[in-house]
Design brief:
By secondary structure, the protein is of the alpha+beta class. It has a single domain, classed as Beta-grasp domain (Ubiquitin-like (UB roll)), CATH 3.10.20. The protein has a 5-stranded mixed beta sheet, covered by helices on one side. A hairpin with a 2-residue loop joins strand 3 and strand 4. The mean pLDDT is about 90. The chain has 1 helix and 5 strands. The radius of gyration is 12 Å and the shape is globular.
């Protein structure tokens, strides 16, 4: 089964439906699924998500994080 893992804080889930989507669509879906606030940034495989047109592959990981020096989580 091909999956993309989405992580926010202690929540981490693997999803089949995100494989083959572009990063922008997957981030939108991940925000909805894990209730991630809009001011939280995303990383793809540990690097800052810059190119939103990247097509996700099996094993990719999207993680959401609050920028260093920001209050709350």
């Amino acid at each position: 089964m091909a999956t993309v893992t989405v992580t926010f804080g202690a929540d981490s889930e693997a999803f089949e439906g995100l494989v083959g989507l572009d990063l922008s669509s997957a981030i939108t879906a991940g925000r909805q699924i894990l209730s991630v606030p809009a001011d939280i940034s995303a990383r793809l495989n540990g690097s800052e998500a810059v190119d939103m047109s990247v097509i996700l592959k099996n094993g990719d990981e999207i993680s959401f994080y609050k920028a260093s020096g920001s209050k709350g989580f």
